[in-house]
Design a protein that fits this description.
By secondary structure, this protein is an all-beta fold. The protein is built from no helices and nine strands. It has a five-stranded antiparallel beta sheet with strand order 1-2-9-4-7, with no helix packed on it. Strands 3-8-5-6 form a four-stranded antiparallel beta sheet, with no helix packed on it.
Length: 118
């Protein structure tokens, strides 16, 4: 599947919390921009859902745009509210939990890691 076809329309104003809907018992992701050098996605998590624990070779910027989220980085819990953001460092164990439903923007920039041991 070509993810680029699912990007939102360029050169058009968007209200981010309105371009994605909550789905009961689900995590929903919509691509805003997808490039080989990185991507930006908007994600909606229903109450009780968790994004699987993972380790990424890249830093990930998370910004909460609606609700509250629990972002766990190396077993340390961080509670973020609407408008707050956190950077998940590359090579760290992390997961995102919805104690109540919320929406977030996730940004990963892959360039700039060429000289590191990824």
């Amino acid at each position: 599947m070509n993810t680029q076809l699912n990007e939102i329309v360029k050169a058009k104003t968007h209200i981010l919390i309105e371009i994605i809907e909550y789905v009961p018992n689900s995590v929903v992701t919509k691509t805003i921009i997808w490039k080989t050098t990185g991507n930006i996605s908007i994600v909606a998590l229903d109450t009780g859902e968790t994004m699987a624990e993972k380790i990424s070779p890249y830093d990930t910027f998370i910004q909460i745009i609606e609700g509250n989220a629990e972002v766990v980085i190396d077993d340390k819990s961080n509670i973020l509210q609407t408008g707050e953001a956190i950077i998940i460092p590359a090579h760290t164990s992390n997961s995102v939990r919805a104690n109540g439903r919320f929406k977030m923007i996730s940004t990963i920039i892959k360039s700039g890691y060429e000289g590191s041991s990824v």
